[in-house]
Amino acid sequence: MKYNENFPFFIKIVSFFVFFFNIAVILYILLKTFLGSNIPGDYIWGIFTLLVISIVQLIISRGCVRLSEVAAQFTLDSLPGKQMAIDAELNTGSI
Asked: Phi and psi of 94, rounded to 5°?
């Protein structure tokens, strides 16, 4: 399986999209519940929804951080092998 160099960039873009989408949803919920209606239970549902979305965002961001750590570790682990292969090719005169 070939590693795609654009994959970390794609993960970053998707993470930013999810982050900004969640902020937009939170702002919509807060503005709709606190400013747009007169039903007393809407405050509770607004705060509950805000908490749920915040917890989901925290879980997603922790997962993205862990994914980037694992990708960095695999990249760093592969560097000595590549260096040894380049040195072997240089010593044989292939390069």
From this structure: -70, -30
CA 91 from chain centre, in angstroms, equals 42
Q: Which pTM was predicted?
A: 0.45
In a domain, 1, yes or no: no
- Cβ burial 9-24 (10 Å sphere, 16+ → b, else e): eeeeeebeeeeeebee
Write out the chain's pLDDT in tens, 95 residues: 566 677 777 777 887 888 788 778 777 777 776 655 555 666 777 778 778 878 887 888 788 788 888 888 887 777 777 777 777 887 888 76
Range of the domain at 15: 7-92
